[in-house]
Amino acid sequence: MRRVVVAAMVAVGFAVLPAATAAAAVLVEVVRSTQTMDVIVDGEHRYTWQVSTGRAGWATPPGTFHPQFMATRWFSRIFNNAPMPHSIFYSGPFAIHGTTDVARLGRTASHGCIRLHPDNAAVLFDLVQRQGMRNTTIVVQ
């Protein structure tokens, strides 16, 4: 029966395409030139937040990533046990995480991580945890 329906659709001009793969439920877009992050959930814009990305000599790498590891409480093993609450690691040592240095949000300030206000980091962490790391895409421009 399905073949007959598909054949009829083709005959009258309907395109028959393979099923599309599901888009990421959570899209995190970081724009280094404006030091902002947009969070889009199921195609709907939810949040725009200020961030701090890597300062001179400590670039935040551009690209498209997926979360690899998440930790509610994390301390940097590289930078004097600096607190990194609600860490979402996406490329080796690079993570999106909360910061206590909120006065510097909106400017480059980190050693390459993407820093957020702690409240916003908690919201993002919860969202990614609920939607799943597989369904989350992080784009750094």
Describe this structure in words.
The structure is a single chain. By secondary structure, the protein is an alpha+beta fold. The protein has one domain: Beta Barrel (L,D-transpeptidase catalytic domain-like). The protein has 2 helices and 9 strands. It has a 5-stranded mixed beta sheet, with helices on one face. The protein has a 4-stranded mixed beta sheet with strand order 5-6-7-8, with helices on one face. The termini are far apart.
Q: Give the fraction of residues assigned to helices.
A: 10-25%
**From the 3D coordinates, which CATH architecture would you assign?**
Beta Barrel
For this entry, what is the oligomeric state of its chains?
single chain
Which outline best applies?
globular
Tally of distinct domains: 1
* Total number of beta strands: 9
Would you tell me the structural class of the helices and strands? Answer: alpha+beta
Separation of termini? 48 Å
Weakly predicted, low-confidence segments: 1-21
Q: Can you tell me the CATH class? A: Mainly Beta
Pattern of helices and strands: HEEEEEEEEHE
CATH homologous superfamily descriptor? L,D-transpeptidase catalytic domain-like
Average per-residue pLDDT, rounded, comes to 85
Rg estimate, integer Å = 19 Å
Largest sheet: 5 strands, mixed
